[in-house]
Design goal:
There is one protein chain. About 30% of the residues lie in helices and about 25% in strands. The chain has about 210 residues and is α/β, with parallel strands linked by helices. The chain has 2 domains: about 100 residues, Urease, subunit C, domain 1, CATH 2.30.40.10; about 100 residues, no CATH class. Strands 2-6-10-11-12 form a 5-stranded mixed beta sheet, with no helix packed on it. Strands 4-3-1-5 form a 4-stranded mixed beta sheet, covered by helices on one side. It has a 3-stranded parallel beta sheet with strand order 7-8-9, with no helix packed on it.
Length: about 210
């Protein structure tokens, strides 16, 4: 089913561009909502506030999944909600089942921050399995761009390093929408407000995250 995603603005697509048409796993068109709906009058339209961008790449995903534990919500009273590393991680009795569950939660949190691709390699078998089942794209690590492991990739790397491609006809339909002001420079707005403002993540044409 063809879907048109419309936002206040689309990154890198011109001053009046506010919509991206998605057919299956690929982008079918980019332009104004008026032009997209005229071309595909039967398409489903999803409207979002804010800025639409290509899906993000988390270059530090291996560290986030293999050197951090993402607590289960049922553990929040004991362990909190933020990823545990260092001594806090060392104090936990970790086995393959726990690593796998942690990785699945970590990957879900990445989707909630607009991530559609993760950099490996992933050396732990349960983490590799979780990544493969998540559907997120896996890419090679980016040389020469060391950064802290964080879900908010805007905070640690330039925009050019974390955008996974561009939004153009024929490209994979990986995109994210961030609730940031569109009257600011995109790089400044995204860095200032952060990836935690993500409203929606689309991976291979599927809406895999939507903020409730």
């Amino acid at each position: 089913m063809l879907t048109i995603h419309a936002a206040d603005a689309v990154f890198g697509a011109g001053p009046r561009c506010d919509a991206v048409a998605v057919d299956g796993g690929a982008i079918a068109g980019v332009g104004t909502l008026e032009r997209m709906t005229a071309a595909w009058p039967q398409a489903r339209v999803r409207r979002w506030p804010g800025l639409m961008t290509p899906g993000l790449v988390n270059h530090q995903a291996a560290a986030l999944l293999e050197a951090a534990y993402h607590p289960d919500p049922r553990e929040a009273d004991e362990l909190g909600t933020e990823p545990l590393t260092g001594d806090a991680l060392a104090a936990l009795p970790m086995d393959d089942a726990r690593w796998g569950a942690s990785a699945r939660r970590g990957l879900q949190r990445m989707l909630q921050h607009g991530t559609t691709a993760v950099a490996g390699p992933f050396r732990r078998t349960p983490v590799r399995t979780a990544v493969a089942r998540s559907g997120l794209r896996v890419c090679a690590p980016r040389e020469g761009h060391e950064a802290a492991a964080t879900l908010d990739v805007f905070a640690v790397q330039p925009l050019s390093a974390v955008l996974g491609g561009d939004l153009a006809e024929g490209r994979p339909a990986d995109l994210a929408v961030f609730d940031v002001p569109v009257d600011e420079l995109p790089a400044r707005a995204l860095r200032l407000h952060g990836a935690g403002t993500c409203l929606a993540t689309v991976l291979a044409g599927r809406l895999v995250y939507r903020r409730r």
